[in-house]
Amino acid sequence: MVLDDLGSSLRDSLGQLSGQSRVTEEDVEDIVKEIQRSLLQADVEVSLVMDLSDSIKERALEEESPAGTSARDHVLSIVYEEMVDLVGDSTEIPLENQTILLAGLQGSGKTTTSAKMAWWFAKKGLRPAIVQTDTFRPGAYDQAKEMASRAEVDFYGDPDEEDPVEIARKGLEETDEADVHIVDTAGRHALEDDLIAEIEEIERAVEPDRNLLVLDAAIGQGAKDQARQFDDSIGIDGVAITKLDGTAKGGGALTAVNETDSSIAFLGTGEEVRDIERFEPSGFISRLLG
Ligand code: GDP
């Protein structure tokens, strides 16, 4: 991490350490305060921010800076290491045959993410297929089909079939030439029992290799209940954060990651199929602190 990756106030606080060989408790307090401000603004949960603050304070005051390292660079590296610990590594997504199930509330960006992920896998040389099982939201079928054609990937859906489990089962059969199956599911406005029962049935039918929870970057602390419930029902292996091209920084998703003991897999940065990035800690950290 370099100073440029940080927000201007934090950069100023760290800049003041320039030339100092030791940091004082007051210096550390100032730096931690700036970090807290940025992270809380980015929707990171208070308890996570407090844990991070304690670790940074403790290490910055107790650890000697290695010979030849300035106090500023030493604190900077502690901040970075602790931030990496907070945001975690990227969810492992092997480039091999697999089935991925997407879960999340309506409007979180599941359908868009399924097409983006399919495009991403196609770019990596695999043959992906999207299986669209959302029979709840009007227009989901047309939207998914259109996006699949833009991503130039295989697609299965059936606007005349009402049973999503049947669509899922048939979808896997009909697209058996594909290497990677991405199964999009229906969301609801809130977590209702029928949504959970439905996704559990789909999960049993398709036996996915991994389940990803799709979260809008603006979710804030609402992520907690969702993450808990989806994790209890199907198990969550990773998170995809959408709409990071907006003003929200996505810190709420860290609550979901923490709650499900998982990690972040993908970031969505726009409405087009190409607007997807693999999660990578340093860029996300700069965004949170920026
Ligand atoms: P679903 O109900 O979970 O399937 O959500 P959709 O995929 O239909 O997405 C809901 C809305 O969010 C649509 O208008 C999408 O175009 C939009 N959307 C999804 N992902 C992104 C993103 O990364 N950036 C932006 N700006 N819009 C997005």
UniProtKB/TrEMBL annotation:
Domain SRP54-type proteins GTP-binding as annotated: residue spans: 97-290
A single GO molecular function term of this UniProt record: GTP binding
EC numbers: 3.6.5.4
Biological process according to GO: SRP-dependent cotranslational protein targeting to membrane
UniProt keyword terms in alphabetical order: Cytoplasm, GTP-binding, Hydrolase, Nucleotide-binding, Ribonucleoprotein, RNA-binding, Signal recognition particle
GO cellular component assignments: signal recognition particle
Residues the record lists as binding GTP: 104-111, 184-188, 242-245
Domain AAA+ ATPase: 96-280
Protein origin, superkingdom: Archaea
Predominant localisation class: cytoplasm
Domain Signal recognition particle SRP54 helical bundle: 2-87
Reaction equations catalysed: GTP + H2O = GDP + phosphate + H(+)
Location in the cell: Cytoplasm
Quaternary structure note: Part of the signal recognition particle protein translocation system, which is composed of SRP and FtsY. Archaeal SRP consists of a 7S RNA molecule of 300 nucleotides and two protein subunits: SRP54 and SRP19.
Domain notes from UniProt: Composed of three domains: the N-terminal N domain, which is responsible for interactions with the ribosome, the central G domain, which binds GTP, and the C-terminal M domain, which binds the RNA and the signal sequence of the RNC.
Described purpose of this protein according to its UniProt entry: Involved in targeting and insertion of nascent membrane proteins into the cytoplasmic membrane. Binds to the hydrophobic signal sequence of the ribosome-nascent chain (RNC) as it emerges from the ribosomes. The SRP-RNC complex is then targeted to the cytoplasmic membrane where it interacts with the SRP receptor FtsY.
Family the entry assigns: Belongs to the GTP-binding SRP family. SRP54 subfamily.
Protein name (record): Signal recognition particle 54 kDa protein
Organism, as annotated: Halorussus gelatinilyticus
Recorded name of the encoding gene: srp54
Full-length numbering of the shown residues: 1 to 290 of 463
